[in-house]
Structure formats: structure tokens, C-alpha cells
Amino acid sequence: MALTSKSPPVAALLNLDALHANLARVRALAPGARILAVIKADAYGHGLVRAAHALLGADGFAVARVEEGIRLRRAGIAHRVVVLQGYADREEFQAHLDHRLEPVIHSVAQAGMLAAHRGARIRPWIKLDTGMNRLGLTPQAFDHAVKRLTHLQPVLMTHLACADAPDAPATGRQLAAFEDATGSLEHPVSIANSAAILAWPQTHRDWVRPGLMLYGLSPFEGKTGAELGLRPVMTLKSRIIAVKVLQKGDSVGYGATWTAGRPTRLGVVAAGYGDGYPREVPPGTPVLIDDVRVPIIGRVSMDMLTVDLTDHPRAGPGSEVVLWGEGLPLETIARRARTIPYTLACGVTARVPRVETEGDYGASESRL
Ligand SMILES: *Cc1c(COP(=O)(O)O)cnc(C)c1O
Description:
alpha/beta; TIM Barrel; Lyase, Ornithine Decarboxylase, Chain A, domain 1; 2 domains; 8-stranded mixed β-sheet; 8-stranded parallel β-sheet; 11 helices; 21% strand; binds pyridoxal-5'-phosphate
């Protein structure tokens, strides 16, 4: 979909077909597992309710917080909804009961509250800490909680710290600890995030919990989603709003950190860190204009960034600029900014309109 002169200066195009395709990719990778689609943090910046509606083919949804679960229910989502942090107090506990949300039980206090409530009809996910040392019960407390909550047919779960590192011994240790605690129990189990779905098939078990890969992004450093058979969902687009010619020796932007080594045709793009584009990228980081990679020069500012159009004379005011997505992997930009795809996707700011699209954007990738 093209930005027209009436379009906003920046837009995040969201390809819902790609979301479906990525869900199908998870199914193909883990055919025996049910899928808990992770849509926390506003579906990694893609929109909570939009993502849920596009992913109705999943078997359930996971969010981080109670409020997100309530939003799903108010939007008419009837699937199982798991709250990854569970409840922190009575009020949140009541919200779980009222909205049929399934809490992750990671503390003794949470387990006690649910066990003490007669007639509760919500299914808990009981979490064992196998070495990540973030949320989760110790083996003793886990054992105790499973016994007390068995009548609610819990799912038993853990979370891996190093699934994105295929050689890390930590994963084997975590899996062994999980097996020790759950091997003799009959309840369904859940271990795998995106990295584990892709790299550790033995973790698929009863429920997989994909997040990042649903959005077409790779959890592995140095790999893109496309290389893993995924399609990018978000394409962040802007346009050129001014062009000027610099003489050799002229500098560009805040701090005057970039100086023209030759006469330079400079383009000003109407997107900056106020939209969530990372300020940390060095000069030379590419944007895509008419399927041609063009380098950023100077520092990214709040509402604008500057590019070198000298070698792309066809580009001018109004030209469409892809900052990441179709044809220019978000992973490439994350790497340049020395961050991870998660933070860029989540970091697209509220002022950027999300525009739903479908289908293939055409051959932009193949023409590169
Ligand atoms: C966020 C999260 C996931 C999804 O992780 P991805 O790396 O995005 O696939 C799965 N499980 C838990 C407990 C999480 O917090």
C-alpha cells in the first residue's frame, strides 16, 4: 500500500496476511502442540485487539497484565486468555474470576489465594523457575502448589533464558530441572517461546508460546525472519519532505557529526525517534526508496532524519521511504542500533497510525 500526499508523514503498515502466514508457520513447526499466541505489549506494537482478531486461529492468547486481558474480553475475544504475571492483589484476582482470565501462578501467595477460593473456575498455569530467576516457584513450592490446585487442571510451565543460543548449556539444565519437577505428573506442560519453537523441537510439548515470530521477526542475532520462513508484518513508512544540495565540507544535523566529503544531494525524511525510529543508528544505516537502499547521514532527530540521495537522483520530495519491513528487515536496523527486534517493534510510538493491509506488497524484496 502506498502513502499518498494525504497520508500521515509516518505510518506503520500491518500486513494481516503475514500474521496468518506466521501462525501457520508455527503450526507447521509444532504440529502436535496447541498455540498460545503472545500478544503482550500491544502485540509487540502491532495492536492488541487487532492482533487477536487476526490470530483467532490460535488456541489461546497470552498477555502480561490483567488490564490487557480485560481489553480482550471487552473486544469479544472468547479464547483462553493467560495473564503471564497473574494477579498481584484481591482486586486483580477478582478480575481474573470475572473475566475468566487464566493466571500464571508464580508465587506462594498467588497459589494460596486461588486454593482458598472455593468454587473458583479458572485454570491456573503454574510456573516453575528452572534457572531464569525471574518469575517462578522453587521446586518445593511448585510441588505444593500443583497438589493444592490439581482440581483446577493446571498447565505446568517454565521459561527458558537462553533458547536463542543453540549451544548454551543452560537450556539443557533448565529442561532437566523441569523434567525432574513434572515428569511424574499428568498435567499438560508449556516451555517454548519463539526461539525454542525454532531451535529446540523437544520443548514443543503441549503448548507453545510464540511471540516475536508471529510478527515475522527473528529471535536469533544475525538471522532475519525471512531466513526462518517468516514474513514481516510491520512496514514502517515515511516520505521525503525536503531536498537540498550540500557543498563539500557542509555538515548535517545536531552536533554537526556528519560532513559532506563531496557535493551531496540531501533528503529530509519525516520520521525520527519521536516515532520510535532508534536514534542510536550510525550514519550509513539504510532506508529503502523505490527499492534502492539509501544511507542515513547525520543524527536522527525527533521528527526527521536525513539521507544521502546523491546516488539516487530519481528520489525527491514526496518519495516514499521504507524505514523497515518489506524489503528492509527490521532486524537489520535493530542490529545497527545495537538493540534487538523486540524493542524496535514495541517502541513505535502512539502518534504513528497503524494501517491494516493484506496481501503481498509486490516484488520489492526480489528486486533488491
Ligand atoms: C514474552 C514471552 C513469550 C514469548 O516470547 P518470544 O520470544 O517473543 O516468542 C513466551 N513466554 C513467556 C513467559 C513470555 O514472557
